[in-house]
Amino acid sequence: MSTTLPPTALQFIDLAAQRRRIGARMDRAIARVMLHGKFVLGPEVEALERKLEAFSGARHCITCANGTDALILALLAQSIGPGDAVLVPTFTFLATAEAVVRVGATPILVDVDQEGFHLDATSLALGLNVARRHKLKAKAVIVVDLFGQPASYSTVRRLAAEHGLVVIGDAAQSFGASRNGRMVGTLADITTTSFYPSKPLGCYGDGGAIFTNDDEQADRIRTLRGHGQSGRFRDVSLIGMNSRLDTIQAAVLLEKLRVFPAEIEARNALARAYIEAIQGFVRCPQLPARTTSVWAQFTVVVEGDRDAFVRTCSDAGIPTAVHYATPVHMLTAYRDFPRATEDLPVAEWLSRRVVSLPMHPYLGRADRLRVTNAVIAAAGRPVRRRSHVFDPQPAVSD
Ligand SMILES: *Cc1c(COP(=O)(O)O)cnc(C)c1O
Fold it and tell me: What is the pLDDT of residues 314-368, one digit of tens each?
């Protein structure tokens, strides 16, 4: 008879561990909202917006109901709609493209680079030709800071300036990160984020925010999120929407923001330890110089049979996830939208090879070793580096 206990469950993202640290404070913050009763856009929302401005260095922060609405509001603020094209990476959470469709514009799906999984500049340029061929006016490009790492905005910015595009940063996964000494929130013309519970800075429900340095845009976004009513006038000149942040969520976020810098540090320590242990068995993410990540996901590229890799991890009690198994341009609802090229080969290649490992600030040393041991067992043997590198025409022989 076996007396061995099954291994304790290791969490992919452990929100309970965070509650053990700051739960009591958060509960008191929520109770204060219950007492004052200003449940929508209450004083905590205002306080949170000012705190997020200070944290990011952006001039304006406008909170809203979720990260998808944040994108929609950013697009509406630019008057983007039918007849307009917005260039979007295909290797992302589908909400990036969904928001474009929701405002009546056409997403043009663009490939990503294999290092950072970010919008690829060459593919972006081809996407602009496609917009012209479809007689669409290219108005904006949405850069996604995938898995928590900010993209190279300077490259995109050059192309955007040439073509008069607004650069929108979808920072749903990267809020708190930085590039070249600038925090996310200041890297694009308009930046959006999400406070969905599993994001690096998450609340206890849905939430989102928009960041910009442009006073006029900020005013417009603030007006749009509340039915187009600005409060100063009796008339309404913009068709708005209802996308307000609940005060309870703001109260939760204010408490979480206090420990956020320490949590980011803990995520980075875990990422460094992962890389040290498993680089060479799987391809680990690399940070470019002067770039920090908040590691929304720690996503590796595996060689060989991914299903078998995932099964070996799962048998060892290690939860994994695949972000993303299907690039947006291959989803049934999105496959008829224009794309930069017939195939978007890097995204398609990545979607068959990526695996995300458990990542949260409270994952301790013992659990970390369980993860890295499982990964090494699942990978089987150190890889020949070549097979991890996307190559559209693999060498027949060396
Ligand atoms: C989560 C996410 C969104 C959407 O955020 P919600 O708050 O769930 O609406 C948008 N883009 C990316 C890249 C995301 O990861």
Answer: 999 999 999 999 999 999 999 999 999 999 999 999 999 999 999 999 999 999 9
Q: How far is ligand 1, taken at its centre, from the CA of residue 93, in Å?
A: 7
Query: Does 85 have pLDDT greater than 70?
Result: yes
Closest CA to 87 of 73, 77, 75, 70: 75
Q: Is the CB of 93 under 6 A from ligand 1?
A: yes
Atom 1 of ligand 1: nearest residue by CA position: 172
Cβ(147) to ligand 1 under 6 A?
A: no
**Å from CA of 99 to ligand 1 middle:** 10
Contact 142, 85 (CB under 8 A): no
- 172 C-beta closer than 6 A to ligand 1: yes
Average pLDDT (255-273) is 97
Q: Terminal CA-to-CA distance of the chain, rounded, Å?
A: 53
SS3 state at 203: coil
Q: Is 243 touching ligand 1 by the criterion CB < 6 Å? A: no
Closest by CA to 383, choosing from 305, 283, 287, is 283
Find the 193 Cα to ligand 1 centroid distance in Å: 7
* Res. 393: pLDDT tops 90: no
Q: Which of 196, 201, 241, 253 to mutate to test the pocket of ligand 1 (most atoms within 8 A of CB)?
A: 196
Phi, psi of 37 (to 5 degrees): 75, 5
* DSSP secondary structure letters along 51-114: HHHHHH--SEEEEES-HHHHHHHHHHHTT--TTEEEEEESSS-THHHHHHHHTT-EEEEE-B-T
Question: Would you state the structure tokens that stand for residue 365, as one six-digit string?
Answer: 């040393």
Give 209-272 as a DSSP string: EEEES-HHHHHHHHHHHBTT--SS-SS--S---B-PPBHHHHHHHHHHHHHHHHHHHHHHHHHH
Read off the tokens for 56.
Answer: 């990011």
State the closest ligand 1 atom to the C-alpha of 194, by its place in the atom list counted from 1: 7
